[in-house]
Write a structure and sequence with these properties.
The protein is of the alpha/beta class. It is built from 16 helices and twelve strands.
Length: 602
């Protein structure tokens, strides 16, 4: 396998994306020539029936029809490949220009730029400061330059990583265009099997995973899905279809292992033990996943993109289901849930909510001229250990209260969620990146906000949060989003608002009743800690931050006259209405579809 690394600046300078335009032109010329030649041949073959009949004539025409079919496949591949090459040239040139622009700006400001993108303040800058001010002022100025250099380093290294992702995207698009032709990457020569390239480390970047997958032949890919599915089932950056089939293939073995562990737990610890209960719950998790994904080939397709039910993988089972195909969709959403979410109790309803959201997003696209053909995939992601307040005993209540009242679970989940976002971009088959919307509910909105602030950046364009206690951010810029692309919804009677009534919380009794009488189940010391400037790491109330766009959650009428049902409480946001669609579902679907103008503002 050719190792995929983030390019250096010198390598970026040497790249010539315009060479892809030349390749595209040559493929277009070949496609045009073949098309014209085959039209002439078709007429000749058709005319041959008048003078060349019998078995020999029919055999010749049958042979020609086979050649014609193969040639038509080649013509389509050349056409699609030329489009992919031109798109890649534009995409790579844009990323290259951004990098070289940042390098030029840093050099003009007299910074030193290392080949890996590290920017440092220089002796020349210090000398200049010292010559124009006193030593104390020079030290302050140099400290500011050092901070600026760190910010430039972050931005430049992110731009280099973005170029690496764009390179994989171009590779994927061209391979996809030529996949049915012999002699392309991922195709072994006739009569050979090829040696399977060594897989990257499991914590490799998603673009490295996709690059490795692209180097495999179709036979090698099929062999891994069939014989070693655990290698790719939860690996971000691998195509969704392969992950789905691999994870489906894992289910029988996982069930056997869990049932064996259940028998052992019953014999060793008894059926009233925590160990037995945990294994039993994990079997229920697997049952729920099997029911939620349905049969292969269902419409719309459901893809099992995460499956982790064995003890040791996490405190709880984890799963993610995509409705629609995220590898080909123009628009993708990922919904992250919050408090008390479990796979066994939530993956089914979240999968149905994802399907409802997709249906509404597709409906809005169909009603928009010029956007009718765009497609949507919505993903229910339970890929982290959401806080749980279920225990009847006091220690359990305290532990759950601490989990939901602190950011630890969200910080853990944010790392996995950020990788998942990046994996969606790396696995996408389009020549251009998909439009991705991050959706977060309740504590899951904090996980979402922290995921968007992970080092290395993300491909997310829009964020929608509802019922949010905080997202650890003051502005869209904190989240790596453009102004106007962060949206918040909150019902008038959502008890989550009490999370920001700190004085009441701090004076509460040892344990407040109910998980949503926020900060429900929290010790007074934890609640009092929220009174700090960052509210215990949750950040300010997003519903009160003017930099975020507040969308309507109550009853509304759309511009085209649709009557929308309002949501109430803390859990209605993604659910279907009693008599029709809720405003919160309509608004979220509008953002997912890239139709922000449809959304109803407060």
């Amino acid at each position: 396998m050719t190792e995929l690394n983030v390019p250096t600046i010198s390598r970026v300078r040497s790249w010539n994306p315009d060479a892809l335009i030349q390749v595209a032109t040559e493929w277009e010329t070949a496609q045009s020539t073949l098309t014209q030649r085959m039209r002439i041949n078709a007429r000749t073959i058709d005319e041959s029936q008048t003078y060349f009949s019998g078995h020999a004539g029919n055999a010749m025409r049958n042979r020609y029809n086979a050649i014609d079919s193969d040639t038509a496949k080649l013509i389509r591949a050349l056409d699609t490949g030329a489009t992919a090459a031109r798109t890649a040239a534009s995409d790579l040139s844009s990323h290259r220009d951004v990098i070289l622009g940042k390098v030029s700006d840093a050099a003009a400001a007299k910074y030193m730029i290392a080949d890996d993108g590290t920017v440092t303040a220089t002796k020349q800058q210090w000398t200049t400061l010292l010559a124009s001010s006193n030593p104390a002022a020079a030290r302050l100025g140099f400290a500011a330059l050092t901070r600026d250099a760190q910010n430039r380093t972050t931005a430049l290294k992110q731009a280099l990583a973005d170029l690496a992702t764009a390179d994989v995207r171009a590779e994927t698009a061209i391979i996809e265009a030529l996949k049915d032709l012999p002699g392309t990457p991922g195709t072994a020569p006739a009569g050979t099997t090829g040696q399977t390239p060594t897989s990257p480390a499991f914590d490799a970047r998603p673009d490295q995973n996709r690059h490795w997958w692209n180097q495999l032949t179709p036979d090698q890919q099929r062999a891994i899905v069939a014989d070693n599915p655990s290698l790719i089932g939860n690996r971000d950056g691998i195509p969704a279809a392969a992950r789905d089939q691999a994870n489906r293939n894992r289910i029988p073995e996982l069930r056997t292992q869990l049932e064996s562990a259940q028998t052992t737990a019953a014999a060793t610890y008894g059926k009233d033990s925590e160990q037995y209960t945990d294994i039993t719950n994990r079997i229920k998790d697997l049952d729920a996943v099997e029911h939620a994904i349905g049969e292969p080939g269902s419409t719309p397709p459901r893809k099992l993109m995460v499956l982790d039910v064995m003890p040791g993988g996490g405190r709880q089972s984890r799963a993610a289901i995509a409705v629609g195909d995220p590898d080909t969709a123009d628009h993708i959403s990922v919904t992250t849930p919050g408090l008390n979410t479990t796979v066994r109790e939530s993956i089914g309803s979240m999968g149905q909510e994802a399907q409802n959201m997709r249906d509404e997003a597709q409906n809005q696209l169909r009603q928009t001229p010029g956007r009718e053909q765009e497609t949507v995939s919505t993903i229910a992601w339970i890929g982290y250990d959401a806080p749980q307040i279920r225990s009847e005993d006091l220690p359990g209540k305290i532990e759950g209260g601490i989990d939901v009242g602190t950011t630890e679970r969200a910080q853990e989940g944010a790392v996995a969620l950020a990788r998942f976002y990046n994996g969606l971009e790396a696995a996408h088959n389009g020549g251009e990146p998909p439009h991705i919307t991050a959706v977060g509910h309740s504590y899951g909105s904090l996980t979402t906000g922290l995921a968007l602030q992970q080092p290395g950046g993300h491909p997310v364009t829009d964020m929608v949060v509802y019922g949010s206690p905080g997202i650890a951010a003051d502005s869209p810029g904190d989240l790596g989003l453009a102004t106007g692309h962060a949206y918040v919804m909150r019902t008038d009677d959502d008890p989550i608002e009490r999370t920001h009534d700190w004085s009441t919380a701090a004076q509460a009794g040892p344990l407040l009743p109910g998980p949503l009488k926020v900060p429900g189940m929290l010790l007074p010391g934890i609640a009092a800690g929220y009174a700090g400037t960052d509210h215990g790491g949750f950040g300010p109330d997003p519903a009160e931050v003017k930099a975020f766009t507040r969308l309507e959650a109550g009853p509304a009428i759309t511009d085209d006259g649709r009557s929308l049902e309002g949501a109430s409480g803390h859990s209605d946001y993604p659910r279907p209405g009693e008599t029709g669609i809720r405003t919160t579902v309509y608004n979220t679907a509008a953002i997912i579809a890239g139709l922000a103008g449809n959304a109803v503002r407060e």
